[in-house]
């Protein structure tokens, strides 16, 4: 009997061991994950961990020192470019390997490999966009240039050196929880990361929605609701700036232009559609010395992107002969993207000019498509998508003269069932990395402009300030000489009349230098006034630009503290203008709950502060009103911008009176939805969250106590916000401040994982420790040192 009991115990133990070392359903192999020696517990990092180390790199050409300050920001001191980028790659991998891995898998459409079939549709969409095709084209351009070839090779070498040093014990915790292993880095992965950003910033267009609306609204009504430029826009390039005559001949619309915009059938209804939050949001501005207290130029930037953990950015300083640059880098790509050196500073906001167009095709099965009266064979690309615990999914994607067929054999793009080809500037073989290389080393305005002319996609508003007091801004990117309305709607893909024309010379990109007003600013608004010679369209928004320009115009002895307040400003131009009209048309008879809401709103200062109940009432009311105003007329395709809606409510008395019922109905819905809600503070209602990239709630921070929304400067929404706040005063000794939502480490078990988050929420900044080139000095803020030998 004892032997039988022992045998059963042995069998049971073996069974448990077997099960614990294999994944079950969505769970990883729990035995490995919970292993006290090698499992997830190894990621717990003591508060007093000593990060100082010494080690060797066989391929290093000279010794490298890395000085980490008290916030774990590395300051790399190298003797040459090769070693500089090799060590940057090693550091990125050391602190952010899993993040880099996941984001480049996402870019390439490879998430199914690690999470299974639930990500297959996402992966297919990435393949149909041509993301890998785009990255391969750009990689070829990057590897043909000696500077960027060296950058990428050294950077990849540094990452792979770190990966080679890892055992399972050392893996970041997400690898253990998701049950996969790091793979070697390649230069293509860095190219993919840059295309991932291009997709985030230029991948969404209104072509399809505008085509649906074109078939449902009169031309006059369509132009009124969806103008190319909002009336009253304060453009990025100050109004009145003189533009040189166009070098290229401005193309006229073809005589048969209407026939080139085919009718399409579809509906985009998905909850509240359109521009409900008035854009994601990014801001930058620069003040010349005539506007500042010290007489030095000040540059500010706060690009608004997804609030994810690990943080999108990684802060660092990089020193080598010819370069001494500080700012934020993208883990997965070499160089500093936004920042400053000892001579200049620069910042970015999204330009939003349209660089992606769709073409309706006529196909003969899956072999050919009609173009200029002939059947043209598709070129094809076989995409194989690995699916965890399933067979590999394979499909052939067709490419045309315009680009890839996005919705062939694929769930219809936003209700459109006809085949659409996509023409996207990001598909071209561009080399934005060369811009970063040169920008990091630029010493003056001339070198700045030389650098940025290598930045083609995504288009950006690039702002500049230098130690000599100059300020400038460029609407930078590669743009196409289009005829009016070309690409505003889905176009006929059967004719060469709709093919993109010539590239506009980058020398003609709109720009301004040292304007008489003493400042420059961009916040995703229209780039120019109507005197700019080339036609363009895009998804431009204005609320933040109106507020920023108003505040900057009132400043005459500005300090960095003024810039802190401006970046954290919560005043809503939308509320200040729309709310009085909304209240005016409310019925007089109201119950107690409605009266409480009205009283809160009447005594409100129009600031979307975290604890404001009035902010909650207004935003919820606006949410319902916006939908009620447009749901029928716009057929769920796309709604006019909130800016245009506000103008109609406040300047068109007929429209306002016709909106009376919608105002009353939406107000009732607002009151009903908030009645019984215990915590009506705005931050509770909007629930700003810094969410872990794998959506792991224990590694996320929910309900952050921050105000704002897309219609204020501090545009912190539920899942987007200022991803890096930077203020740089370009005095003789540069004075710089910054903060981002998260921390330097990608390890959820580290005190440096979200160490900056509280300061970011509260609008506080860190003084950035910028070492003069080649000098460590005796600075008490140097906490750890890496000594790396060949």
Q: In percent, how helical is the residue content? A: 25-40%
Low-confidence stretches: 269-277
Give the overall average pLDDT.
92
Number of helices: 23
Q: Give the overall silhouette.
A: globular
Tell me the number of strands.
Answer: 28
Query: Largest sheet at a glance?
Result: 11 strands, mixed
Structural class: alpha+beta
Strand order of the largest sheet: 1-28-2-3-7-8-9-10-18-19-21
What does this molecule look like?
This protein is α+β, with helices and mostly antiparallel strands. 33% of the residues lie in helices and 17% in strands. It is built from 23 helices and 28 strands. Strands 1-28-2-3-7-8-9-10-18-19-21 form an 11-stranded mixed β-sheet, with helices on one face. Strand 15 (379-385) and strand 16 form a beta hairpin. Mean pLDDT is 92; it is low at 269-277.
Question: Layout of helices and strands, plus pairs?
Answer:
Layout: H1 2-20, H2 30-34, E1 53-56, E2 64-69, E3 74-77, H3 81-108, H4 112-115, H5 120-129, H6 131-144, H7 146-164, H8 173-178, H9 187-202, H10 207-214, H11 219-225, E4 282-287, E5 298-306, E6 308-309, E7 314-320, E8 323-329, E9 338-341, E10 344-350, E11 356-360, E12 363-364, E13 368-371, E14 374-377, E15 379-385, E16 393-399, E17 420-424, H12 432-441, H13 445-452, E18 460-466, E19 471-476, E20 491-492, E21 511-513, E22 519-522, H14 543-554, H15 560-567, H16 573-584, H17 592-602, H18 613-630, H19 642-651, H20 653-658, H21 660-674, H22 682-686, E23 691-692, E24 720-722, E25 725-729, E26 735-739, H23 757-762, E27 766-767, E28 782-789
Parallel strand pairs: 1-28, 3-7, 6-23, 11-20
Antiparallel strand pairs: 2-3, 2-28, 4-5, 4-22, 5-24, 5-25, 7-8, 8-9, 9-10, 10-18, 11-17, 12-13, 13-14, 15-16, 18-19, 19-21, 25-26, 26-27
């Amino acid at each position: 009997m004892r032997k039988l009991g022992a045998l059963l115990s042995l069998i049971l133990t073996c069974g448990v061991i077997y099960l614990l070392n294999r994944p079950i359903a969505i769970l990883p192999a729990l035995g490995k994950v919970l292993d006290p020696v090698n499992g997830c517990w190894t990621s717990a990092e003591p508060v007093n961990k000593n990060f100082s180390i010494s080690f060797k790199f066989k391929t290093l050409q000279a010794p490298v020192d890395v000085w980490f300050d008290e916030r774990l920001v590395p300051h790399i001191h190298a003797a040459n470019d090769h070693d500089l980028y090799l060590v940057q790659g090693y550091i990125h991998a050391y602190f952010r390997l899993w993040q880099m891995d996941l984001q480049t898998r996402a870019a390439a459409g490879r998430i199914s490999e690690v999470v299974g079939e639930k990500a297959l549709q996402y992966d297919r969409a990435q393949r149909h966009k041509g993301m890998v095709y785009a990255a391969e084209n750009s990689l070829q351009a990057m590897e043909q240039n000696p500077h960027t070839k060296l950058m990428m090779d050294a950077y990849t070498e540094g990452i792979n050196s770190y990966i080679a040093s890892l055992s399972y014990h050392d893996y970041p915790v997400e690898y253990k929880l998701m049950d996969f292993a790091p793979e070697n880095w390649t230069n293509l992965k860095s190219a993919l990361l840059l295309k991932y950003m291009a997709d985030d910033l230029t991948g969404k267009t209104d072509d399809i929605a505008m085509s649906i609306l074109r078939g449902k609204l009169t031309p006059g009504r369509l132009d009124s609701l969806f103008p190319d430029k909002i009336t009253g826009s304060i453009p990025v390039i100050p109004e009145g700036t003189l533009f040189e005559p166009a070098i290229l001949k401005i193309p006229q619309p073809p005589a048969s232009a209407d026939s080139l915009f085919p009718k399409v059938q579809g509906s985009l209804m998905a909850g509240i559609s359109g521009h409900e939050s008035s854009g994601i949001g990014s801001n930058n501005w620069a003040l010349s010395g005539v506007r500042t207290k010290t007489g030095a130029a000040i540059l500010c930037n706060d690009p608004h992107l997804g609030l994810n953990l690990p943080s999108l950015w990684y802060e660092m300083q990089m020193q080598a002969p010819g370069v001494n640059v500080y700012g934020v880098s993208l883990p997965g790509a070499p160089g500093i993207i936004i920042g400053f050196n000892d001579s200049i500073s620069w910042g970015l906001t999204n330009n939003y000019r349209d660089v992606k167009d769709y073409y309706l095709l006529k196909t003969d099965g899956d072999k050919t498509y009609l173009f200029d009266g002939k059947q043209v064979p598709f070129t094809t690309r076989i995409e194989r998508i690995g699916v965890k615990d399933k067979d590999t999914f394979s499909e052939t994607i067709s490419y045309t003269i315009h680009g890839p067929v996005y919705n062939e054999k694929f769930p219809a793009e936003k209700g459109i069932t006809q085949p659409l080809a996509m023409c996207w500037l990001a598909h071209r073989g561009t080399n934005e990395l060369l811009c970063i290389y040169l920008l990091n080393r630029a010493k003056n305005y001339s070198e700045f402009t030389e650098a940025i002319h290598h930045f083609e996609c995504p288009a950006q508003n690039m702002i500049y300030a230098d130690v000599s007091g100059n300020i400038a801004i460029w609407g930078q990117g590669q743009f196409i000489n289009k005829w009016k309305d070309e690409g505003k709607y889905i176009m006929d893909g059967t004719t060469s009349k709709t093919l993109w024309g010539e590239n506009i010379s980058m020398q003609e990109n709109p720009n301004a230098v040292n304007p008489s007003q003493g400042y420059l600013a961009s916040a995703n608004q229209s780039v120019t006034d109507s005197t700019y010679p080339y036609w363009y369209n895009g998804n431009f928004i204005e609320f933040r630009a109106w507020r920023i320009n108003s505040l900057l115009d009132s400043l005459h002895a500005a300090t960095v503290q003024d810039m802190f307040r401006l970046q954290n400003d919560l005043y809503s131009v939308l509320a200040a203008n729309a709310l009085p009209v909304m209240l005016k048309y409310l019925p007089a008879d109201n119950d107690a709950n409605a009266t409480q809401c009205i009283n809160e709103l009447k005594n409100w200062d129009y600031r979307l502060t975290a604890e404001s109940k009035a902010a909650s009432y207004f935003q919820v009311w606006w949410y319902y009103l916006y939908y009620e105003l447009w749901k029928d007329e716009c057929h769920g395709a796309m709604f006019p911008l909130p800016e245009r809606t506000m103008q109609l409510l406040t300047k068109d008395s007929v429209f306002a009176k016709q909106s009376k019922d919608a105002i009353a109905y939406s107000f009732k819905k607002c009151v009903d939805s908030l009645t019984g809600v215990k915590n009506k503070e705005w931050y509770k209602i909007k629930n700003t969250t810094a969410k872990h990239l794998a959506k792991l709630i224990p590694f996320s921070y929910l309900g952050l106590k921050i105000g704002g929304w897309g219609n204020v400067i501090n545009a912190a929404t539920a899942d987007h916000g200022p991803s890096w706040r930077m203020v740089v005063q370009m005095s003789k000794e540069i004075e710089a401040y910054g903060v981002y939502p998260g921390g330097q480490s990608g390890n959820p078990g580290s005190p440096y994982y979200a160490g900056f988050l509280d300061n970011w929420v509260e609008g506080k900044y860190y003084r950035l420790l910028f070492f003069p080139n080649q000098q460590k000095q005796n600075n008490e803020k140097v906490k750890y040192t890496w000594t790396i030998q060949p």
